[in-house]
Write a structure and sequence with these properties.
The structure is a single chain. The protein is α/β, with parallel strands linked by helices. It has one domain: P-loop containing nucleotide triphosphate hydrolases (Rossmann fold, 3-Layer(aba) Sandwich). Helices cover 37% and strands 25% of the residues. The protein contains 8 helices and 9 strands. A 5-stranded parallel β-sheet has the order 6-7-8-3-9, with helices on both faces. Strands 2-1-4-5 form a 4-stranded antiparallel β-sheet. Strand 4 and strand 5 form a beta hairpin. Helix 3 packs parallel to helix 5 and helix 5 packs parallel to helix 6. Bound molecules: adenosine-5'-diphosphate (2 copies). One adenosine-5'-diphosphate binds next to helix 1. It holds the Pfam family ABC_tran. This is ABC transporter, ATP-binding protein. Keywords: ATP-binding, Nucleotide-binding, Transport. InterPro entries: AAA+_ATPase, ABC_transporter-like_ATP-bd, ABC_transporter-like_CS, ABC_transpr_LolD-like, MacB-like_ATP-bd, P-loop_NTPase.
Length: 231
């Protein structure tokens, strides 16, 4: 079942000298529920731009993005914020945890915006996700008291706390050593599978891409004509 559809999506930015620069073009692309796909391409090819479009923090210059039957490009900001908070989890390269909040509080902060559960159930789910991430004894630690790999595990728990349909990860292991990176990838793929979320992971690392069900490159996305309508 289709989770996400892009039709004739173009993103342009205006350069300082006033010229328009096309940074991303996707004639047609679909992602199914529960799929796990690597998005590959060199630095600067538009991977982050695509993730930002999919979670609605950037709007397309033209074209249409449909997530769970909702057309993102025409949604009001407030509705888009609600949809993002409840249905999209985001894992950054640099973790982006709140520095003054404990591991548990970081996860709960995401639940406060996007969850329909009671406060008690939110707490239970947050603690459960952190335990599954191997952080059962770190709930009350601040980010600076955690290793890089542990911080990324907290970020993964935060991204999943509202049971999103879509999990976006932007170079999630790029700042980790190879062994930690492999374990974080395992957690990411395993928890996406366990929660039924589709996972779209940006990477320039072929080894990370190979862990996913399939890979698609930014170049392929741009080259695929809308009329062909391949998934
Ligand atoms: P990647 O994630 O593959 O490294 P990005 O999506 O970050 O690529 O960037 C794609 C291109 O878009 C780059 O050339 C970048 O400079 C440009 N770009 C991204 N955001 C902006 C912006 N806000 N204003 C102007 N150019 C941008
Ligand atoms: P990083 O370099 O750490 O991977 P990104 O370049 O992906 O970070 O993110 C750029 C900015 O967009 C960040 O400041 C981040 O806070 C914001 N952002 C990205 N995704 C979301 C989201 N789902 N909700 C709120 N803010 C977001």
């Amino acid at each position: 079942m289709t989770l996400l559809r892009l039709e004739n999506v173009v993103k342009r930015y205006r350069a300082p000298d006033g010229t328009e620069l096309t940074v991303l073009e996707v004639p047609w692309w679909e992602l199914d529920r529960g799929e796990r796909v690597a998005l590959v391409g060199p630095s600067g090819s538009g991977k982050s731009t695509l993730l930002h479009l999919l979670c609605g923090i950037v709007r397309p210059s033209s074209g249409s993005i449909t997530l769970l039957g909702e057309r993102l490009e025409t949604m009001k900001e407030s509705a888009l914020d609600r949809l993002r908070a409840s249905q999209v989890g985001y894992v950054h390269q640099s973790f982006q945890l709140l520095p003054g909040f404990t591991a548990l509080e970081n996860v709960l902060a995401a639940a406060a915006f996007g969850s329909s559960l009671s406060k008690r159930r939110q707490r239970e789910r947050a603690a459960e996700l952190l335990e599954r991430a191997g952080l059962g004894d770190r709930l009350d630690h601040l980010p600076r008291q955690l290793s890089q790999g542990q911080q990324q595990r907290v970020a993964i728990a935060r991204a999943l706390v509202n049971e999103p349909a879509l999990l976006l990860a932007d170079e999630p292991t790029a700042s980790l050593d190879p062994e930690t990176a492999a374990r974080v990838m395992e957690l990411l793929i395993g928890s996406a599978a366990a929660s039924g979320a589709a996972l779209l992971l940006c990477t320039h690392d072929p080894e990370m891409a190979a862990r996913m069900e399939r890979s698609v490159s930014i170049k392929e996305l741009a080259a695929r004509p809308a009329a062909v309508r391949l998934a």
